[in-house]
Design brief:
heterodimer, A: two-stranded antiparallel sheet, 11 helices, 2 strands, 75% helix, B: alpha+beta, Arc Repressor Mutant, subunit A, three-stranded antiparallel β-sheet, 4 helices, 12% strand, globular
Amino acid sequence: MKNIIERYVYDVKRRLPEESRAEVEKELVANIDDMLGDNRSEENIEKVLLELGEPRLLANRYRTKERYLISPAYFDDYVRVLKIVMIIFISISLVFGSIDLALNLNVETPWQMIGEVFSKLFSVSTNSLLMAFAWVTFIFFMIEKAEEKTKFRKWKISNLPELPMKNSPKINRTGAVIGLVIETIFAMIFILLLVNYLDALGIYEGSTMVAPMFTVEIVKAFIPILIISVALSIVVSSLKALYGIWNVKLTVIYTVSKIFSTVVTIIFISYPNLFNILMFEKIAEYLATTTNEVADGFAIGIKAFSIFIGIVVTIDLITTWLKTYRGKRNKEL
Amino acid sequence: MSDVSLLTNLIVELRRGTQIIAVLNQLQENQYGYSLLQRLEQNKINIEAGTLYPLMRRLESQGILKSEWDVSDSRPRKYYILSDLGKEILVELENEWYKLALEMDELFKENKR
């Protein structure tokens, strides 16, 4: 190997501030020279350099100031703020990504649409995470820089945080965020299907549609309120992820959104003539029965489904309120 | 002793604080990096070259040491020696050392049964 000493010294030097480089280099060369003595064999050079240790660490010791992006003293706060900001950013990006999709989607087939929705929402959420990371890191870095200069940090007793609620009913944050992303993606697919492909939904024979599934005008009338309902539940999911615990405020909002979306859903699916009579006729034809019987069957199915979601939502709301109440009582104790 | 590396770490940690006193003590005379390293080694003070050289430079920047290049020899060398401030500090540190040793001694005796 050639120029080992020069390369070693260079590797130390390049990590140092400009003004101390020349002096450190001169001194380090002299020191290495002394340590080598008269034996300048490659073996001895290697031995001496290994004794001096890794250039990165040596340079670090030559520096007078500690250097880091986020100091250990701030790291806890940094991680905590980062988590919250990431949740906020991901929520906002999903909302805006969805709006963008709804306004600008331009695809030929439902499959393309599904792909578009997935890739769009995935890319906006990863982008937002990277942005959150960059901003929080930058801001903390600046705060530390400012403190170093002004030494303004003064800790006061009044800075102490409030005690958290004991045994407060926790919401799994990671689960809530994952749920939020999945919920948004499927909500977007559902709405876009209704908005863009309403005319294409129906029974096909070969490649020609013989009976549409819905009465198009009725579905169209429902679209705005369906969008509001979906948006509301996405907002509530974001709040869940943000709060991390069930408190009364969150539970009230959660209850309102649940009841709203349930009522909208039930009204929507049981709306008279929502399903196109032509579809019932076609099904009756296939099953060799009357159109009326098919329509009655559908009506019963819808009723059963409505009752089912009604029960599920009621149970969910009762358990959520019990949890919230328990958390509140624990706080008061 | 179940965990040798744990003990070694604690000893290294304990001794690290005393390194500076040893270094300052030896710098009442002119020394260059390697000669100081050897002197310390002869006196069983273990300090790595990669720690000592930056330390000398840092002490100089703090005004505790002063330095001078000697280029008369074929090998140029940077000699360090205590500054006036360094001499005062050494006296204080040595006093502190005796005080500490005494206090520790007392503490150990008290707890000995």
